[in-house]
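Subject: Protein record for review, amino acid sequence with backbone structure tokens
Concerning: The relation between a protein's sequence and the shape of its backbone.
How to read it: Take the token row as a discrete description of the fold.
Enclosed: The protein record, placed directly beneath this head.
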Amino acid sequence: MFSSRNIFIPFILSILCLNLSAQPATTEHPRLVVGIMIDGLQQKHIDQLWNYFDPNGFKKLIGQGANLKNVSYNIVSAGNASDIATVMTGTTPFYNGITGNYFYNPTEDEVQSIIQDDDQVGIGTSQTLSAHKLMTSTIGDEIMLTNPGKSKSYAVALSAEEAIMLGGHTAKSVAWIDDVNMKWITTGYYTNGLSHWADEMNVNGVFKNFVARTWGPLYNINTYLSKPNREDKKWGFFYDPTTKQSKNSQASILKRTPSGNGLVTELGMKILEEEQLGKDNYPDILLLQYTVRTPFEKTSALQSAEKEDIYLRLDKEIQTVLQKIDVKVGLDKTLVFVFGNQTAVHSPSELGDNKIPAGYFNADRSLALLSSYLMALYGQERWISGYYGKNIFLNKDKIAAKKLNFADFQKTVAEFLMDFDGIQSATPASQILGIGGNSNSEMARLRNSTNKNCVGDIIITLMPGWQEVDNKNNPVGESNAIVSYAPVYFYGWKIKPQTVSTSYQTTDIAPTISRILDIPMPNANIGKPIVELTSNP
């Protein structure tokens, strides 16, 4: 004979089972991922300034986290867009399509931004930009796709290329600094457009307050290792963030001052708090970009008081971020990863001053000589259609019309270019795209850095110590090292304090995060999870 108790208990158990099945998976993983990209970051600089840092900034991040000493980029340096895309997608430009900050568009016969998109609208700007040329998913995209309508993704950066490559395709909102009109701006490509919190900073004067902060030494100028780049007798050095980059530029130096970094922290932490990131079992991702570049610097080496000072002030920004995360989410529930871009340890000028072979390569001058040579051989025609980032585009229609053998024409061009100062190699693109074998070889790195949608007909490489610059002396890809290393740190969640000496590549960062979160890897991922961070204890 059954009692009411015998009936009641199974009933309650069935209700509990139904409720439990309705809950999100309880597999343990971080509730929040915070990615920090630092433009110009070098491990050598961190080591030199170690004793000057606060215990709760870089020292906590590196000393209590995992310091990966041998992480290299398996692509040729071509700008922050390609470096960031490589990290976020776990693959190279060969697959993700982001070959640099700019590319030559043969259809339009002009060099265009890799994020230009005429089908979009700018918000707060006339720029029309998007991630539409990013051909693969990012780690942020995979978080959003795994938990549609539940997870959140935001990116805050100094410039558009960094913001969009960090945000990928599916971020709710990204924002970057307009250093002409002094405000946050974005693109309509993202669901929420300009976040309410960025708009609020534009309207309530917070943004302008940061811009109004002049920059002088954080400490007594005599305590710095180096002298100022631009000495000020009263302050040691003195900069106004509204100062123009040059006489002919409307853009200010804001993005290369501590005020720029401070703005990124202010908005990023506002989003963290107000959007309730990391508050449930669905992981969120917040991506921030900083810089240790300084105004008018001529070398990326740590050779000025300004360079030291921007590091010391960034150390305090890192401290603020970690403290805010700890209060709002908990560092034990947050995975933090930090990475730098490809940065030259020494400039060609510095190498030259020390009798080490080096130089600056200006493509326009070389192409002018190449054009004259081809005209002398084949007639007065425009044989070169265009150029950008070591890719030379030949006028295929004209070559075909003159019934010239294209392969022979390429060979002639390549052989002529080999006589130019600074050029290491000149190779037909078809040979580059077909390269296999050792993924760490220089030619394999070159293949990794090309994409069929924007590859030229001849690809050149430069000799060690040489750097390509445009007509305004702006670098077109900075590091020309055969193997370019970058600082990479992981901190928080279950990351044990350790120094990892195993060799890895930046394409291994995204799959590592995927493995920790137990989500799919980006859809063109070629990296492997970092064993020291993902293996069970």
